[in-house]
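User: Study the chain.
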Amino acid sequence: MEIFLLYFLFINVIVFILAGYDKYKARKNKRRIPENTLFFLQFIGGTPGLLTAMLIFRHKTSKTSFIVKFAVILAIQIAFIITFLNYKK
């Protein structure tokens, strides 16, 4: 269980830093981090980190397509967790 928690912490810190860095690059008109990279990290457990970065840095919050994709991944994760918890009973 400790390994899972360390992984969860690690992936969320990484996605938070990358989203902040992407916002920095956006302001400087530099090459950006691909959205698919952020979505992959979100999908493998980085949802809280990406959401926190979006709120703190106001990053991608006005881009509807990003919000929709974020919400779809979140819904998939919630469905997976509910299924997993019901299966364990």
Remarks:
- DSSP finds three helices and no strands in the chain.
- Residues 2-88 form one domain.
